[in-house]
Structure formats: structure tokens, C-alpha cells
Amino acid sequence: MYQDSLARRSFLGLQIGEGGAITAVLPGGAGAKVGIFTGDRLLSIDERPFTDARTLTREARAKGTDRRFSFEVRRGDRTLTLTGDAPPLPVEVIEGADVLLGQVASRLRAIFAIPNEHPVVGSILYMQSIRAESCEAPLSPDAPIRKWVQACAGRGWIVLRVERSGVGDSKGPDPTETGLEVELDGYRAGLRALTDLEECRN
After folding, report:
1. What does the alpha-carbon distance between residue 123 and residue 126 come to, in Å, rounded to a whole number?
2. Cα 186 to the center of its chain, rounded Å
3. Closest-CA residue to 201 (of 94, 90, 112)
4. What whole-number distance in Å separates Cα of residue 125 and Cα of residue 135?
5. Rounded mean pLDDT of 153-161?
6. Contacts of 83 (CB under 8 A, 6+ apart)
7. In b/e form, how buried is each residue of 44-79, taking b as 16+ CB within 10 angstroms?
8. Which DSSP category does 21 fall into?
9. Average pLDDT over every residue of 59-88
10. Above 50 in pLDDT, residue 196?
11. Can you tell me the distance from the alpha carbon of 81 to that of 74, in angstroms, rounded to the nearest whole number?
12. Rounded CA separation 51/105 (Å)
């Protein structure tokens, strides 16, 4: 269960506004490492034109273990090409829990939060809404999902989140291209993983 052959997506560390304008450069990300500044305008990543914020998500997921990126930016009247390596996206820090990354169904990211300050009372499988967004928030300590997981762990609950196909680190087609059975298969695999974990702990 804890074997993890899924590549962690890259940490680009850029927030983008209208027209590709860089509105924030996050410490430790690829953008900061290569010298991108707030106010630059992103033109392309690895020679692929920037179109919208989803471009960043696609590129961060697509690289796998190859984390070398090339950013073309406009700074004032100059066009610059900045190249460097991106670190992997950090793992969430949940107070009162150990956060472990794994996989289920051979291709879906599994995120376990296991209480380390309270006796375990049971397990929860978190099932996402229909939105094709990641269910982890390593860069946002105040994200509702992260606070909820922390609250559950603080009461002794193991929480497992399973990323949907094509979301986060998970492989496979975008959720808009899959059906209900594919979704259910992922959650069934999650339930089996929780059962295995409980048996290992007993």
C-alpha cells in the first residue's frame, strides 16, 4: 500500500493573473529558483505557449521525474528565457498526524493522514465532489479540506483521500472523460487500502 511509484508533480510556485501576469512567486518553487519576478508576464513553458492557469497544472503534472523547466517571460521591453529544475510539490503538514503518500488501483494518488497523538478510533474515506480539483492543499494551511483532515486526526480518525483520475498526481484521463464506474473503482480500492491498513495495525 505504501509503495509509491507515482511521480510527485512539480512545484512551479507561480500564481498567474490576467494575460499571464505573474501575481505571486512562492518561495522554494521553480519560479523563484530561476529568477521569475512578480510583474513578469509568462509567455511559454518548455516552448509551449501559456494560455491560462490550467497550463501550469498540466505542465507540473506532465514532467514526471524530469523536473527541468524552461520559462519564457516578458519583463518590461525584454523577453527572457529562464531555465532550471523544479522541486517536487511538498507534502501537507497536518498537526497531530503523519501524512503518507501512496497509491491505489496502480494509478491513483492516495493520501493517508494517520493520527500520531491520539489512539485510532476508526477510518474515514473522503469522497470528492464532482469538481476536477485536487483534494490536497500542501501550500494552503487554511484550506477547508486540510483543516477538516486535521480536526478528524485530532479525534483519532485515519483519513484517506484518493485523487480522481487525471487529478493531482493521479494518472489516467481527466475526470470529465471517465464514468461513474471508474470513480467507484477508485473509491473501492481506497476502502480496500483502509481495510489493509487497519489489519496491519491490529
Report:
1. 10
2. 17
3. 112
4. 12
5. 96
6. 34, 68, 69, 70, 71
7. bbeeeebeeeebbbebbbebeeebebebbbbeeeee
8. B
9. 89
10. yes
11. 9
12. 32
